[in-house]
Structures are given as C-alpha cells and as structure tokens.
Amino acid sequence: MKKLNWLKVWWLPVCLVAGCSTHSDEPNRENFTVAVSNFLDEHGDMCIGKVKWPIDITKDEARQRTANSLQLPVMEKIGLVRKQQISDSTMRYTLSDEGKKYYLHKPLPSMAANGTVTMHDGDVCYGKLHVDKIIGWEPPHEVNGSERTVITYTYMIDPAPWTKDSDVQRVFPVVAMIVRSGGTLQLKQVVVLTKDGWKGEIGFI
Fold first, then answer.
1. What is the pLDDT of residue 109?
2. pTM of the entire predicted model
3. What does the alpha-carbon distance between residue 117 and residue 44 come to, in Å, rounded to a whole number?
4. For residue 149, which of 28, 21, 45, 24 has the smallest C-alpha distance?
5. How many CA atoms are closer than 13 Å to the CA of 144, on its beta-carbon side?
6. What are the domain boundaries of the chain?
7. What is the pLDDT of residue 39?
8. Is the separation of the CB atoms in 126 and 175 below 8 Å?
9. CA angle, 96 as apex, 93 and 100 as ends, to 5°?
C-alpha cells in the first residue's frame, strides 16, 4: 500500500509537467484552435484568383468591362503588372518583378459555380489568415466512416500593403472586405478526426 501511495504522489507532478494525455481527439476549443491554426498555416493564403499569366485583354473585353479589364489596369497602376500592346485589339499584362513577389507557387484551391474544387499551381496572394478565436462548432458526426464537424471562427490577416489602395479596394471588393473584417467576419472550417487528432480538410462549406 505504501508503494502505491508513493506512486500516486510521484505520478501527479509528472502529469502536471509532461501531461498524462493530450486528449487530442476531444471536441473542445483548445483542440479545434490547434486544428484550424495548423490548417491555416498551410492553406490560409488569400489570393485574387489570377492563376495563369500572361493575361490578354481584348478591346471587346474592355468594352464589356469584364473583371480582368477593370482589375489589371489597377494592378498596373500599383506596380504589380506591366502591359504591352501585342496587336491592334489586344493588350497583354504580365507580372512585374514586384508582382512576382506576391505570386505564390504552391497548390491552391478554387471553387467553380457548380461547387467543384479545382487545385491550381499558384496565384497572386494578398495576405495570410490566422485564427483569432473559435466561436463554436457543430456536434461531431460520422460521415463515410470518419468523425467530423464544422468549426466557426474569426480570423486575423496580414495584408499586403497594396490592399490599402482605394482603387484596389474598388475593383477587388472581396479583398477589401476580407482585409477590413479581420476579427469580426466569421468563417467555417471542416475538421476530421484522425489518429493524430483533429485535422482541417480542404473544401468549401
């Protein structure tokens, strides 16, 4: 009995110092904060959706005021692209040396109108998200043999300096909204329980 009592006294400080169990599978705020934070470290890059360069703008596109025809001249104004007239009807825009600093060469997802997720080799990015705080989560449930849930959280962002330009904010309204809404806008993230704990999953809610 004395030996058992000694073991109990010895075990308590060891647990306090080293931790008896991480309980990384528990659906709690601490574990979900770690899961979303790790996911954003890898996938939290916010980009403008211009993945292939150069980009050509025709006179017809300019008359129709397409997104590229409005956005690329602003990107030229702030020094991210340069233009070249390649024909009577077409202007070509390429990334400048400054613009190349913001082109991230890594697999990045985008979603089509039908909900299909496509991976791209890179994109022009304007900031990276970090977890601000976990707001809540849905009750975990099993889907295709895996336990998962959806976490709601607020974020902080480190924006590129050029996102402050008023013309950039005008032609890239989503960029402006994401940058100004740090700490208030609520985002959602799917997490799945794995043998190593909760992990974020690429996808769109």
1. 78
2. 0.81
3. 16
4. 28
5. 1
6. 23-200
7. 96
8. yes
9. 110
